Amino acid sequence: MTHQPRRALRHRRGAISALLATTLAVVSLPLATPAVATGSTTPLAEGTYLITLADQPLVTYDGSVDDLPATRPAEGERLDVTTPDAKRYRTHLTEEQRQVAKKVGATVRQHYAVTTNTFSARLDAAQLVQLARTKGVTGIAPDRLHHASDDKNSTDFLGLSGRKGLWAALGGTAEAGKGVVIGDIDTGIWPESASFEAPALKAEKPTRAPGGKPGRDDPHRPYLDGTTTVMHKADGTTFTGTCQTGESFAATDCNQKIISARYFGEGWFQRVPASNRAGYTSPRDSQGHGTHTASTAAGNSGVRATADGRDLGTISGVAPAATIAVYKALWQSKDGKQDGGLTSDLVAAIDQAVADGVDVINYSLGGMFESTYDDPAQTALRNAAAAGVFVATAGGNAGPDASSLDNTAPWTTTVAAGTIAPYTGTVTLGNGKSYTGVSTSVDGTVGSASLVLADAVRTAETADAGYCAAGTLDPARTAGKVVVCTRGVTARTDKSAEVKRAGGVGMVLVNNGSESTDGDLHSVPTVHLGGPAATAVRDYAAAGDATVTLSRGGAGATYPQVAGFSSRGPSLAGKGDLIKPDITAPGATILAAVAPPGNHGHDFDFYSGTSMATPHIAGLAALYLAEHPTWSPMSVKSAMMTTATPTRTADGKDSTDVFAQGAGEVEARAMLRPGLVYDSGDQDWLGYLEGVGIDTRSGVKAVDPSDLNYPSIAIGELFGTQAVTRTVTATTAGTYRAEVDLPGVKATVSPSVLHFSHPGQKRTFTVEFEVTTAPSGVLDTGSLTWTSGRTTVRSPIAVTPQSVHAPAEIKGSGSSGETTFSVTPATSPLTATARGPVSSPLTEGTLTGTAEIHHEAAIPAGTKASQISVHFDVAEGNVAGVVWGPMIDGVLQSAAFADPDSDGTSTISVPQTNADAIFVAVVALDYSGDGDSVTPYTYQVNHISEDSPVTGKATVTPAHSRVTPGTPTDLTAAWSGVPAGARSTVWIEYRNGAGTFLTLN
User: What share of residues in the chain are helix, strand, coil (percent, to 5)?
Assistant: First the structure.
């Protein structure tokens, strides 16, 4: 969410803060303790940024520019970028971008015009401040790195195969997904895989019978028009792509399955030196991730998978008749530290995919933290969805921590990873105890053999061999034994490779904590154990003279469960008013095609991650769009969500954790019969964005975020009573009756009965929620279900009663005093505790001419709230301000601008912290003409914890009072003994961690 700027008299003109507050915004971020300020020749603020301008991109342009007709497609149609009007408007946008860059002395690196009006350029802090003051600039975001998100047959588990499966109902695998193109934005593709085997592309067009009717030839067969691949799709529009040649990739590597392949790496190549690049500069995949996702979504059916001479059975893509367009935007570095893709390259890939005409985008990647809704890549995906493209995104692999999701915007389908029937192996110890874990590599019986901890057979020069890193095991001591190796530090399969090198005959891989257990193609027979079983095996082996037998099979865990690694909500960007993830799909131990160079020479391998779950949803969307080509992306998502079923807990019960599973596990056979759907489009999303505080410059009126017409219902702050509104569209006629299950909350649906006489009919209803016995501040979950005969339409519900509405900040002055302010409690009693005041020492500095100085410091553990202040004494006509952002592992994650107030002080108040450090660039722009103006400044950071040292005394009264919920009541904050000439900060804390800043002086 962005915030509106204040005017700062002589310090600046125009709106700066709202433009640079991108991924940082005003969410919880850390603030640094004072550090020695040092000048820098290469300041952290300098780098590549994406600058978004106000004019609409092609997919949403409505003709508002004189003499340039609209390019936005009509409802139900797709964007055509080849029309003269589209070409003219695209030229207009790129020239506009070039002129904006020229104003600040920058050079455009990449232009984007289809899904976002954005360009990328390398900028320093001074240029950032100047751009932020430039008319027409609506957003500035750093070019950050994104990473691939890392029944026994998932297609069987989903109910696709078999005589009664969904494929059969759709006419067989040869028809399942026909006429649909899936765009895979990933690490590329290994075209030689059997999963992509298909006839070569040829110039001959599909034949048609007299009268324009389809002939015997497949009307959706792709063909070549010169170097362009053309495919007439199920929705009546045309896909046009190309096979971009490059390193070890020829035009003939495309075929009637892989109909287009491109790569996007300009930003990554500029950042990563050639000496640290690995893989192929082409669409060819060196890592395997993109090959795995593409083959999962749309690989051929009935492909025999083998590895190391082992028959792993047959595999199929979810939509085996769909075609694949490859957009490689994730890259491999030799040191592994710069693997991934930059925002600029991802936006280029999204832009091109929409221009080409894909129907579905698979986006199995994410950042280190949650992307904001107005992040350039998320904006591009929004406009892709507005153009009719279904977008499936990975939720991330940072679970089970709360609020660890990425890709949480409402216009994408955010996917969690679930388990399927596990491949199992059993560890039988010499003491008679047995433990079953996950294994894809134990085919027979191993042992009885000696069982040893890795540390017991390490080489003489190795201090710690517990992780079985390469070269740490002594062959003389390891030969013939089963080795216990600990998860972590090195890749799981590298551990078994080390055991094999040292002559071991098997491995028991044990977790240290709550990590998932995974199936991998190991070099020796391996069983992966977690929890108490891992501890028991480790302890038994440590006692000495241990023996073990490894055998195939055993009773596996209950499924489907949400995998431990799958990222959880709630979304920080959504503030509890939107349930994310949306849905769960198979994502643990998924067998699919891979690229041999990155997978020990294997053509197929088992991968786990939300990256693996996402292409299941992308493939299911392709099946849907082949049957209903004109359905909107949100209607398809709604059909999946409202027909999903709960996942399971470890003890086999239905899960109620909506921030883990979303609506639940996708049900392929049920999704085609949703009964009702909740639809939404670009105008709805813009209203939602305005509602969460993002200025879209669209003129669309803000709506309460909880009122977005979504297939789930969420209220981040249920304060007393609140009503939400939804509109449903019938897919079949019927009479539907509502039922709500939400403990401790009274829910009234009006009307509670909806009658539909024909498909396409719409009805609007409200649900009023009133807290009764639900505890304050505790998430309450349930569901709304509409029922008509055997058809049920189920929406998950998540509401959180809140304790108080209070101002974010109040102010006071002087060494002592008091101020009275109003709060509105939701419950009684009301408690308020004053922490502080804290007044840290000032760091003084000066800036000469146009210059910047940066600060960087760590955030101490236990910090509840922080406030950073930079006071400037700026000469008339000059400009000063602060560019700042959070740092994780020494890397700047995003940038925002803190504009000075009328007194010349830039202040950033942040409740809670979640990063390692803060970077602050103190910037002055000299417009005097002589270039030697001096700008003095002071810098201070006050961080508040339960035991932080205080300067003076602060109280709040009453600290504990009986109140009437929902009725405003007054509190009085008082302070004494604080320094009158320096900033002091007090944090007034209420129940559940909510609070108010008291800023003094």
Answer: 20, 35, 45
Q: CA 453 to CA 163: how far, in whole Å?
A: 49
Q: How many residues are listed for the chain in this entry?
A: 1001
Question: 185: closest CA among 251, 299, 262, 257?
Answer: 262
* Euclidean distance between CA atoms 431 and 427, whole angstroms: 11
Q: Residue 80 and residue 84: Cα distance in Å, rounded?
A: 10
User: Does the pLDDT value for residue 719 go beyond 60?
Assistant: yes
Task: Point out the catalytic residue in the list 286, 611, 638, 945.
Answer: 611
Report CA 521 to chain centroid distance, whole Å.
Answer: 28
- Given a contact cutoff of 8 angstroms between Cβ atoms, the answer to whether 149 and 365 are in contact is yes
Tell me how far CA of residue 763 lies from CA of 638, 673, 753, in angstroms.
Answer: 16, 18, 10
Question: Pairing relation of β-strands 745-750 and 676-677?
Answer: unpaired
If you average pLDDT over residues 672-699, what whole number do you get?
95
Catalytic residue among 55, 124, 186, 285: 186
Among 289, 616, 854, 943, the one annotated catalytic: 289
The b-or-e profile of 56-73 (16+ CB within 10 A means b, else e) is: bbbbbbeeeeeebebbbb
User: 458: which DSSP letter?
Assistant: B
Residue 74 CA to chain centroid, in angstroms?
30
DSSP character string of 838-855: E-PPPEEEEEESSEEEEE
- For residue 135, give the DSSP letter: T
Cβ contacts of 256 within 8 Å, gap of 6 or more: 198, 199, 200, 201, 221, 222, 323
Do the beta carbons of residue 364 and residue 148 sit within 8 Å? yes
- Whether 889 and 933 have beta carbons less than 8 Å apart is answered as no
What's the whole-number average pLDDT of the chain? 88
Reply yes or no on whether 528 is catalytic. Answer: no
pLDDT in tens, 780-805: 999 999 999 999 999 999 998 877 88
Q: Do the Cβ atoms of 201 and 254 come closer than 8 Å?
A: yes
Dist CA 542 CA 564 (whole Å): 28
Residue 214 reports pLDDT greater than 60? no
8 Å CB contact between 616 and 296: yes
Q: Residue with structure tokens 């972590």?
A: 488
Strands 360-363 and 390-394: parallel
Closest CA to 319 of 382, 252, 381, 392: 392
**Helices (DSSP H) in 149-249: which residue ranges?**
154-157, 166-169
CA dihedral in degrees (510, 516, 518, 524; nearest 10)? -10
C-alpha–C-alpha distance, residues 649 and 558, integer Å? 8
What integer is the mean pLDDT of 84-100? 95
SS3 category, 867: strand
Tens digit of each residue's pLDDT (9 = 90 or more) over 737-779: 999 999 999 999 999 999 999 999 999 999 999 988 887 677 8
Does 958 sit behind a cis peptide bond, omega within 30 degrees of 0 on the bond before it?
Answer: yes
Return the ∠ at Cα 570 (arms to 583 and 623), rounded to 5°: 15
* 289 in active site: yes
CA-based nearest residue to 446, from 467, 422, 428, 424: 428
- What is the rounded CA–CA span in Å between residue 571 and residue 404? 8
Region at 993 (left for phi over 0; alpha for psi -120 to 50; beta for the rest): left
933 catalytically annotated = no
Please tell me the distance from the alpha carbon of residue 679 to that of residue 711, in angstroms, as a whole number: 8
Beta bridge partners of 509: 485, 528
pLDDT value for 958: 96
| Residue keyed to tokens 């922080």 | 866
pTM of the model: 0.77
- CB atoms under 10 Å from CB of 979, counted, come to 14
Cα 426 to Cα 445: distance, rounded to the nearest angstrom: 10
pLDDT at 308: 85
The H or E element spanning position 529 is strand 526-529
CA gap 290, 188 in Å, rounded? 5
